Amino acid sequence: MTATILVGAQWGDEGKGRVADWLAAQSNVVARFAGGDNAGHTVYVGTKVYKLHLIPSGILHEQVVCVLGNGMVINPVNLVREIDELEAAGVSVTPDRLVISTRAHVITPAHIALDKASEKARGEGAIGTTLRGIGPAYLDKTGRQGIRMGQMRDVEAFADALYDGMRRANESLVHQGMEAVDAQTGTEAYLDAALRLQPYLRDTSVYLNEQLRGGATVLCEGAQGTMLDVDHGDYPYVTSSSPTSGGALMGLGFGPREVSRVVGVAKCFSTRVGSGPMPTELSGEPARRLRGTGENFWDEFGTTTGRPRRCGWFDAVQVRYAAQVNGFTEMVLTKLDILSGFDELNIAVAYELDGEQLNAAPDTLSSLERVTPVYQTMKGWTEDVSGARRWDDLPAEAQAYISRLGVLVGVPVSTVSVGPEREQLVFI
Ligand code: GDP
Ligand code: IMO
Ligand code: MG
Known about the structure:
alpha/beta, Adenylosuccinate Synthetase, Chain A, domain 1, Adenylosuccinate Synthetase, subunit A, domain 2, Adenylosuccinate Synthetase, Chain A, domain 3, 3 domains, 4-stranded mixed β-sheet, 12 helices, 31% helix, globular, binds guanosine-5'-diphosphate, binds 6-O-phosphoryl inosine monophosphate, binds magnesium ion
């Protein structure tokens, strides 16, 4: 049993990238299993800030081989750009360091146009997607008319498939009163990307199973978060994949007996980018304090879209649900340093709906949108905790806050992150 699954316990941006960077140091293989370049994982190493979208954070460790699994949807042009940017920053991304599933699906320019059209058509009810074409690409996958990365091996046939996909999308775009995409535009960049990516393509399920059999340590690096899961999240304000632990097995192609550890990553407060319910959302000064001003790279502005993130108190009802859906064996809590200086901290311990107290979230959106949180208030601390490396270095109030979160979620907190740098971790 040598696989660890790392997933976001909230609405994404929990700090999975920085936690994966830590766990990758002890891994041989790091694999992404769901989503595409809607993800944005920021990792800080020394004086360099890396912003990763498709390639796992594990690439920053020389001994690691990275995998883009079959569960992903990949924009090949953006992938080539990311490879080039990493190479320019001195990170080797050769085919012996990155393997791409032949079964992963391709995001085309038509999918991006359809994503925009669908958001526009929803008007007020827009999801607030990242406009990367994620939803339409998964729609083509489950509609059994998608293009798989393996088709790039025959560039002429790949060009025909791209053309067919564009033609189909255009019918739909014109039907929606939107402008059609030029089937020639962008195709050339796609064909160049196909030639570049050919040496990286493999059956990654076979590869991962071989590695696991040989005793390799595999880290499955989640993207997005539990509440964005198409089944378990706040449907329809979700992404179109399964970023939860079950999705890791589906999106990589190995069995559950390989998994020894399921690590849930949550912030010490809540953030969400895009639309949808968020019971503990704050406005005004406290939200601004949690968000930051945007001057620091760790402030709460989207890595992929630059949108300010919605901020709120820690929602233990929500994270408890995530623990159940994923089967967390441990939790990592991030951004404790941001809470220094609050007189009091609130934690949602239950919800109230129509005068009744609920210990779990209702399973319909219309009810969830009407709940109000029941808060437990805890004493804050003024000390800067960013230099803490041991549990004993933390102020008593911070210890009490972390301990309380662990009890409320029902999963042991193994690690607390007190800053974005590699060594800014407290192991409990
Ligand atoms: P991901 O999508 O889950 O990988 O998270 P993002 O990278 O989108 O957002 C998390 C941000 O918080 C990044 O800029 C990290 O560098 C930063 N970060 C992670 N952990 C900490 C922490 O403990 N303290 C602070 N101040 N920043 C952190
Ligand atoms: P990481 O990996 C935060 C959100 C979008 C939108 C919804 C659907 O950095 O945690 P999509 O483009 O996927 O169809 O958008 O999901 N979303 C994310 N929010 N972090 C992410 O990734 C996200 N990926 C998608 O904002 O609400
Ligand atoms: Mg992110």
